[in-house]
Amino acid sequence: MTNKLITLKEAYKDYFKIGVAVNPDTLKNDGELIRTQFNSLTAENLMKPEELQPEEGRFTFEGADQIVQFAKENGMAMRGHTLLWHNQTPDWFFKDGDKTASRELALERMKTHIDTVLERYTDGFYAWDVVNEVIEDKGTDILRQSQWLEVVGEDFIEKAFQFAREASPEMGLFINDYNESHPEKRDKYYTLIKQLVDKGTPIDGVGLQAHWGLEDPSLDNIRAAIEKYASLGLTLQVTEMDVSVFNYDDRRTDLTEPTSEMLEKQAERYDAFFKLFREYSEHIDSVTLWAASDRYNWLNDFPVRGRKNWPMLFDENNQPKESFNRITAFK
Questions:
Q1: Among 201, 226, 324, which Cα is nearest to 280's?
Q2: Residue 60's closest CA among 41, 72, 75, 47?
Q3: Alpha helices (runs of H) in 57-121, residue ranges in sequence order
Q4: Which site in 23, 95, 251, 319 is 20 to 30 Å from 111, CA atoms measured?
Q5: In a 10 Å sphere around its CB, with 0-12 CB exposed, 13-18 middle and 19+ buried, how is residue 182 labelled?
Q6: % helix / strand / coil in the chain, to the nearest 5?
Q7: What is the mean pLDDT of residues 247-276?
């Protein structure tokens, strides 16, 4: 039976913020669900570098401003995403005419971008992802190959945090990555963060994207990751959560709705995940879902083209699923 008397933000008010990734279309189409259930917003794409500064010196804030305005009107906090990324960043950051930009020019552009964005988007924000997805997935290298790494060098991460702290002295500054609970990547992520902390880098927290599934990662691996990151004395935030109803090697495209078995397993997983989050709420201060409902989410067509997915707590009609019932019925 659906628990109609409680919302996500009410259920977790004594634990952590409950956030959701949005864009202007979802605010228009799903605004009632968003304002009722959540108390934190993240721009899904509209605060990424290519969206905010597609050409050098031309900042385009209109779409992002709509999200900030919605948050202000509804008493919601904002979580910024993301100042630096290897993806969705215009090539002009790294070019000087037909040549590769110098380290000095790339750093100047980095600083200008961070300064301008944080000058506009600090009030009402409790955190920003300063760098996103910098860890190499496979092999022994810690850092992912990227134009930031190639043009600036390994200290581009430290520089980004330094510029962000100078621009916004009180902001929570985060590093963010996916597959953060897989032991191989977890250990590299931890190693990098510890190096940053030991160097005195102004980093406040660790983002766990939490794009998880019905089987992977294991609860033991998630717990181990939480404990390892928390041991650094930093705040943790679950930043992009969803629970795919397909296992990684399941390539089916014929389903028009999730099976009852999928929904039950998904509910079990959400319940177990949120039990862990509650257990570690002294370290976790926000949990953000990467869509409001199954009506719209990034896992449609990814990683399998032509496939619908149903990874969220609310269905395509914005009605609560069993996953929602389980995670709000703990009191």
A1: 226
A2: 47
A3: 62-73, 103-120
A4: 23
A5: middle
A6: 40, 20, 40
A7: 89
Among 44, 87, 11, 20, residue whose Cα is nearest residue 293: 20
Phi, psi of 265 (to 5 degrees): -65, -40
DSSP code string of 112-145:
HHHHHHHHHS-TTEEEEEEEE--B-SSSS-SBPP
Calculate the alpha carbon distances from 291 to 44, 155, 215, 275, 296 in Å: 8, 33, 21, 21, 7
Reply yes or no on whether 133 is catalytic.
Answer: yes
Catalytic residue among 44, 51, 180, 240: 240
Q: Which of 44, 51, 133, 180 is catalytic?
A: 133
The answer on pLDDT for 323 being more than 60 is: yes
Q: Which of 70, 15, 38 is nearest to 290 (CA)?
A: 38
Which structure tokens are listed for 272?
């177990």
Fold of the domain built from segment(s) 177-293: TIM Barrel (3.20.20)
In angstroms, the CA 3 to CA 269 distance is 19
- The pTM assigned to this predicted structure is 0.95
Looking at every residue in the chain, the average pLDDT score rounds to 95
- Tokens standing for 98? 């037909």
Structure tokens that stand for 89 in this block: 């960043």
Please name which of 265, 139, 105, 129 lies closest in space to residue 208, comparing C-alpha atoms. Answer: 129
Token digits of residue 61 = 């804030």
Q: What would the two tokens of residue 18 be?
A: 């409950």
Largest CA distance in the chain: 63
Contact 267, 275 (CB under 8 A): no
Active site residue 184: no
